Amino acid sequence: MEGYTFLIGVTFIIFSGIISGIGSSFEQQRMNFETETKLERTKKHSYSFWFFIIGIIFIIASVFLFLVR
Question: Which domain holds residue 16?
């Protein structure tokens, strides 16, 4: 059970990185910044933040389940 919980947590963290654009180059980030509105950037950062928080919660839960078992 804790293996699935850990994988779900890692998946959420990977989605967080994809949404925030962590794999893009500086040029791509600059172009995205120039073409997005402030509302779009705020929304994107909010989604990325919450995906990261949910991922951390799942990873902590998997560690807890592993230690309890």
Answer: 2-68
Tokens of 52: 């990261």
Residue 61 tokens read as 């839960």
Q: How far apart are CA 43 and CA 51, in angstroms?
A: 12
Alpha helices in 1-69 (DSSP H): 2-20, 26-35, 38-68
Residue among 69, 63, 53 at smallest CA distance from 12 = 53
The number of distinct structural domains making up the chain is 1
Chain segment 8-37, per-residue pLDDT in tens: 999 999 999 999 888 888 898 888 888 989
User: In sequence order, what are the residues at sequence separation of 6 or more whose Cβ sits closer than 8 angstroms to the Cβ of residue 27?
Assistant: none
